[in-house]
Amino acid sequence: MPVRAWPHLYRYNTSNLDIWLLSLLRCTVLAAVCLYVWRNSAKGGHGSRHEKWHRWLRRCVQATCITGQVLLLAKAVAVALAGNDNVMPGGPAGDVGLAFIFGALCTSLAASFAELYTAVSLLDEWQHQRHAHGEADEPLLGAPGETEKSKAKRQSRTVRLLARMSAIDGPVLFVAFTAGAVAAFAQALVPYFTGQIIDLAAIESDRHAFYVTIAKLVLVSFACAVFSGLRGGLFTVAMTRLNIRVRMTLFRSLLSQEVGFYDTTKIGDVISRLSADTTTVAAQVGLNLNVALRSLTQVFILLLFMLKASWRLTIITFVAVPIIVLICKIYGAFYRKLAERVQTELAAANTVSEEMLGSMTTVLAHGAADSAAAAYQQCLNKYNKLQMTEAVAYAFYTITTIFLPNTISAMILLFGGHLVLAGRMSPGALVSFMLLQQSLSSAFQTMGDVFSSLAGAVGAADKVVELITRQPKIPPPGGLQPANFQGRVELRDVVFAYPARPEITVLKGLNLHINPGEVVALVGPSGGGKSSIVKLLERYYMPLSGSVLFDGYDVGSYDPKWLKQRVALVSQEPVLYARSIYRNICFGVEDEDGCAPPSREDVEAAARLANAHDFIKALPQGYETECGDKGVQMSGGQKQRIAIARALVRRPTILLLDEATSALDAESESIVQEALDRLMLRCTTLVIAHRLSTIQNATRILVITKGIVAEEGSHEALLEQRGIYSQLVRRQMQKTTSSASLARGDSELSFSRFALQRTASEPRNLGTDQ
Ligand SMILES: Nc1ncnc2c1ncn2[C@@H]1O[C@H](COP(=O)(O)OP(=O)(O)OP(=O)(O)O)[C@@H](O)[C@H]1O
C-alpha cells in the first residue's frame, strides 16, 4: 500500500469508529469464548453446566458477527450511494477509498474467523448429539463406538494409502500437472489479451498491434485447449490405473480373509465395496484431484495477473474469499457424512437384492416375491430419503456459491468504474480484470465443489481402505512341503467355537486319530460338530485350544497351496463356477495358481474315475460345456461327479467327504458312491457318513455328539455296545421301516430291505434326525 495512503487510512478509521468498536467487541467475545473453552476442555462433560455456558457464549459470538456484518454492509451501501468522492477510489482522495476497503477486509476477516470457530463448534456439537442418540455411522469393520480421534486417524490413513497407490503413476501425474499449469497460464492470458485488444481498438487505434494481439489471443487459446486436453487425458489414464489397482488390491485382500470374516460380514456389503466404492474412489478421487489441481494452479496464476492489472481491485475480490472457504468447510463436513450414509444404505439395498436374486427358486417356491420387493423398496426408500437431504444440501450450497461471486463482481464494477472515470485504469484493463475475476470466481467455485465431492470420495475410500488393510484373524500359514507326506490326521484336545457365536463351544476337547490309508466315518446327531471337524482340517477356522495335525505337524505350518493339492474336500453342495467343465475340474491347479496344470489325459482319467466322463462326452461341447453361474446348467449328480473329478485330479493323499451324496436321488447316489468308493481305496479318508454303504466300508466309526467322540469302533462293535450308536440305528430303523411301508416298491424300500438283511438294525441315515 502506498505510504501516502496511511493518513487517509487513519482518517477513515477515526471517522468509522463504530465499525472498529464493533470489530473490537467481536474479537473480545471471541477471545473470551476461546479462553473459556480452552480452560474447560479438560473438564469435558457434555450436557453439563459448562456446556450451557459454552453454548450461550457461542450465541453471543454469532449475534455480534451477524450484526457486525449487517452494519458493515449498510455502511458500504450508504457510502456508495452518497457518491462522496472523498471516500471513493479515483476521487480527489482516492486512497481513502482504499483505506475503506482495507478496513472492510480486516473486519470481514475477523468476522469470518469468528464464524469459522462457531461453525466448527456447531459441527462438533452436532456430531456429539448424533453419537448421544446412537446415530453414529457404524463402520463396516471398525468398532461401533469409534471415537472421532480414531476416525480422523483412519481417514488420514486412507488418504496416505491412496496417495501411495497413486504415486506409482507419479511420472504420468507430473506430466499431467505440468500440462495443467501451462493450460492455466494460457487461460489467464486470454483475458489479459482481451483487455489489450479493447484498448487497442477503442483508445489507441493501432491496427498492426491490434492484429498481432488477436493472433496472440488465438495462439494462447489453442495452447490452453491442447494442454487442457493433455492434462485431462493423462489424468484419466492415471485414474483408470488407480481404479484397477484399488480393485485388485481389495480383491486380493478379500481372498486372504478367513472364513469367519464372511460369517459375520454381509456379502452384499463386501460386493458393494468392490464394485461401487472402488469405482467411486478412483473416479471421484481422480476427477476431483485433477480438477482441484487445475483450479489451484488457475487461482495462483490468475491472482498474479490480477495483481498486475489492479492490486486494489484484487483486494476487494479477496474480501469474500474467507466466506467462501468457510461455506465450503461446513458443507464439506456435512456432505461427507451424508455420502458415507448414502453408501451404507445402498450396500444394504444390494444385500437384499443379492440375497433374493441369488435364491430365486426358493423365493418363487415360497411365493415370497412381494415381500422380497417390499424389503428392497424399504431399503431404497431410506436411500432415497438420504439422497433428498443430499440434494437439498447441494441446492443451498449452489445458491450461496453463485450469489457471492456475483456480488463481488458488482463491487468490482463499482470501484473499478470509479478508477476508470478518474483515469487511473484503462477500460481494457477493467474488462481484463473482470474476466480474470470471473475466472477466479469459477475456479474457487469449482474448488468448493471439488472439496465436497473429494470429501465424499474419501468417505467411500475409507470403507475400501478399511477392507484393504484388514489383517486376517488367523496367523499366516507356514511353508512346509514334506517330501514324504503320509496322510496321518490328528486332532488333539481341540476346543472350538465359531467366531460368529463365541459363546457356544462346538468342540469340547475332541481327540481324533486317523492312520494313513484308513477310512473313518463320522456319525452322530445333527449339530454335534462333524462338519466343524472338517472345517478345522481345511483351516477355515482356528481352534481355541488344542491342535489340528497332519503327519504330526500343525495344519497351519504347511504351505497352503501345497497342502490343498494333497487334501481334497468333496462337500454336500459342491460349487461350480461359470466356466467350462474342463476348467472346473482344473479349478485351483491352473497355471495362474502357480501349479503345473494337469494334462488333458489326467483330467479325463479323473473324470472317468468320478463316473463323469461318459456324461461329459455325451454333451455337445464335451469338456468345453459351460457349467453356468454356480453350475446351474448341471444336475445335482453331474455337479457332484465334476466335484469328485476335481478332487481326484489332484491325486490327494487325504480325502474329506462331507455328506457328499446326501443331496442326490438314489440313482445319482449309486453312481457317485461308486466313484467315491474307488477314491477311498487310494486315500486316507474322513467321511461324514450319511449312507449305510459308506459306513459299511469304513475301517472305524466315530460317534460325534456334543463336541466330543462319544463312541468309537466298527459297526458291529458299536451295536454291541448298545450306546448312542445303537440308539441312533434303532430310531432310524423304526423310521425307515415306516417309510418303507408307505413307499413300497421304491428305492428307499429296497434300501431298507438291504439294511434289514444285513444287520437287522442298520441305519438309513445316521446323521440328521436326532
Ligand atoms: N458358520 C457358523 N457360525 C456359527 N455357528 C455355526 C456355524 N456353522 C455351524 N455352526 C453351529 O455349530 C454347531 C455344529 O455344527 P456342525 O455343522 O459341525 O454340525 P454337524 O454335526 O455337522 O451337523 P449336521 O449333521 O446337521 O451337518 C451347530 O450348533 C451349528 O449351529
CATH architecture of the largest domain: Up-down Bundle
- Can you tell me the CATH topology of the largest domain? ABC transporter transmembrane region fold
The best one-word shape is: elongated
The number of helical elements comes to 25
* Mean pLDDT score: 74
Query: What CATH first level of the largest domain would be assigned?
Result: Mainly Alpha
Beta-sheet strand percentage? 5-15%
At a glance:
The chain is α/β, with parallel strands linked by helices and about 775 residues long. Helix content is about 65%, strand content about 5%. Helix 3 runs antiparallel to helix 4 (about 95-130).
Written account of the structure:
This protein has 770 residues and is an alpha/beta fold. It has three domains: 1-135; 165-316 and 334-468, ABC transporter transmembrane region fold, CATH 1.20.1560; 489-713, P-loop containing nucleotide triphosphate hydrolases (Rossmann fold, 3-Layer(aba) Sandwich). The chain contains 25 helices and ten strands. The strands form two sheets. Strands 6-7-8-3-9-10 form a six-stranded mixed sheet, sandwiched between helices. Strands 2-1-4-5 form a four-stranded antiparallel sheet, covered by helices on one side. The protein is elongated and about 120 Å long. Residues 1-14, 41-47, 83-103, 125-144 and 742-770 have low confidence and may be disordered. Bound molecules: adenosine-5'-triphosphate. Adenosine-5'-triphosphate is lined by residues 263, 498, 500-501, 506, 524, 526-532, 767-768.
